[in-house]
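REVIEWER CHECKLIST
Item 1: Sequence provided? yes
Item 2: Single chain? yes
Item 3: Sequence as submitted:
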Amino acid sequence: MQKSQSLPHELLNGLRRQKYQLVGGHSAVKKCRWLHQSLVEGRSCYKHKFFGIRSWQCVQMTPAMVHCTMRCKFCWRVQPDDAGTYFDETVMPDWDDPTSIVEGCIQAQRRILSGYKANPRADRERYDEALKPKHVAISLTGEPTLYPDLGNLIREFHRRRFTTFVVTNGTLPQMLSDLEEEPTQLYVSVCAPDEKTFLETCRPQVPDAWQRLNHTLELLPSFSCPTVVRHTLVRNLNMKNPERYARIIARGNPTYIEPKGYVCVGYSRNRLTFDSMPTHNEIRQFAKDLAAFTGYKILNEATDSRVVLLSRLEKPIMFY
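Item 4: Structure as written out by the authors:
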């Protein structure tokens, strides 16, 4: 195990206030609201609807809780400016080994679930299944490709029969190119139709970030796993020019496209307002425009999450 670097207390305190379960020196797990909804209300998130992912058996984690190559305006994570501190977010000089991270995440998920044991509203069968998670979303916050041993982290989850869903901002294409093991599904966030909007929306902290993102998209056809281009869309910021988005998407020829509406939560409220959130009707219309420009079909949508799924497939690949 590498020695983990000491992070600013202001950042760690901000994460704890947001109810992150800290794992080791740089990883974290957080309860997704859909975990609660699936246990107490019998509802599930759009990943269940689209891909069969059981919300009550899904761990939402990150191996890079405060490390990222960008400071996206729409991101909910605590950024140095939010905490009144500074450190180099783009470098993770010391890191924990994959086995300890995976074990720590499973333990953290069980801590999160412990309060549901006595909850009379919790579905008992789902609760028992939740104690044995089988999916992991490596997407909670930060940029996972900054964790130098990401391929072995994926492998370690796979060894425990988890499905893995990695979400990256695409600014470290070499890490993706060198992955020792592919995730079950790979998401690339494309949150601007052009470089000018990209710089304004995503505020990259590394040089040539736009070019790096485009390089990542060009790598996508080399992956054997399903790939997704995801757009987090913000009204009056990056929700424009679907034809330009379509040209960018064509470089990656992804299995799916997911336009999704920005949600005004966490520290993004320091940068955007509730008026920045598009309605589902706006997202649906944007998806229709993307379909017209890309030749992809709309397969599904989730109104409560304001997200639409497009693909050239007749139906999505399910991961039960």
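Item 5: Key structural point noted by reviewer: DSSP finds twelve helices and ten strands in the chain.
Item 6: Recommendation: ____
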